[in-house]
Amino acid sequence: MSFEAREYKVFNECIDSAISTATEEFWKLALETRELETTERVGFMAHELRNALATARMAFTMLRTGQVGVSSRTADVLDRALGRLEQIVGQSLLDARLRAHIAAQQVSVSLEKLLGEVVEAIPSERGIAIAVEVEGGLELVADERLLVSAISNLLQNAAKFSHNGARVSLRARRDDDAVVIEVEDECGGLPEGTTDELFKPHVQAGTDRRGFGLGLAITREAAELIGGEISVRNLPGKGCVFAIRFRQPRAVDARQQATRRAQG
């Protein structure tokens, strides 16, 4: 074997070794990153569960010992705490589903019907009213559970950060080749430079820090999984508008669709 051949062989062995080492380090770093993310998520969830459970236990103790009646404000506190527990568990299960990359189940959804049902399922608190405006005949081909989760999280976020007696608007409309679903709140506007951070897990831009911090991150993941693009527009001094945009052909005019069915 010539010197040149030996040199070439050593060179190839060095390259193979470098690639192997780099690959090993990459996967080691990726594993450490995933473990850190998992630890952070579990830590946040445990913290929020503990807070909600502590509130519920305190309220229940007062009711059980007869210190207050079932129609008292303490009973309302217990109801909200239990609702919060349900929300945390629901968000965590959806987050797990999204991370497991479970395939979306696409069906044709009437937005007028679905948005009305979503609003009905959200409890009214602090005098906040939710107004619904849906352009007639709108349908969307999407995973209904993911769509409901995305919209519900936006509405819950809007209600949480808006002032007492505020008006939250839920709108669905056509926009050229797309359908846009918007949620407008009255949170007073976002601090400067925070819009890009809102959709990261466990990040909140408002003054109310009680939330789990997964809501908007889950909303983005759910929306993207069913073909939507989410954005936020700040209204300084008033609030903000969260929008999920779905492009055609997912946007369907139900009346045209019905006509096509009738024609056979």
Give an account of the 3D structure:
The protein is an alpha+beta fold. It folds into 2 domains: 9-99, Helix Hairpins; 106-253, Heat Shock Protein 90 (2-Layer Sandwich), CATH 3.30.565.10. The chain is 52% helix and 20% strand. The chain has helices at 3-64, 73-99, 111-120, 144-161, 215-225, 254-263, and strands at residues 106-110, 129-134, 138-143, 167-175, 178-184, 228-235, 239-247, 251-253. The strands form 2 sheets. The chain has a 5-stranded mixed beta sheet with strand order 2-4-5-7-6, with helices on one face. β4 and β5 form a beta hairpin. α1 (3-64) runs antiparallel to α2, α3 (111-120) packs across α4 (144-161) and α4 runs antiparallel to α5. Mean pLDDT is 74; it is low at 207-212.
Give me the number of helical elements. Answer: 6
Poorly predicted segments? 207-212
Please identify which CATH superfamily of the largest domain we are dealing with. Answer: Histidine kinase-like ATPase, C-terminal domain
SS class: alpha+beta
Taking the sheet with the most strands, its summary is: 5 strands, mixed
Name the helix and strand elements from N-terminus to C-terminus, one letter apiece. HHEHEEHEEHEEEH
**Which percent range fits the helix content?**
40-55%
Strand order of the largest sheet: 2-4-5-7-6
CATH class category of the largest domain? Alpha Beta
- CATH architecture of the largest domain, by name, is 2-Layer Sandwich
CATH fold description of the largest domain:
Heat Shock Protein 90
Shape: globular
Q: What is the CA-based Rg, rounded?
A: 25 Å
Our measurement of the CA-to-CA distance between the termini, rounded to an integer number of angstroms, reads: 78 Å
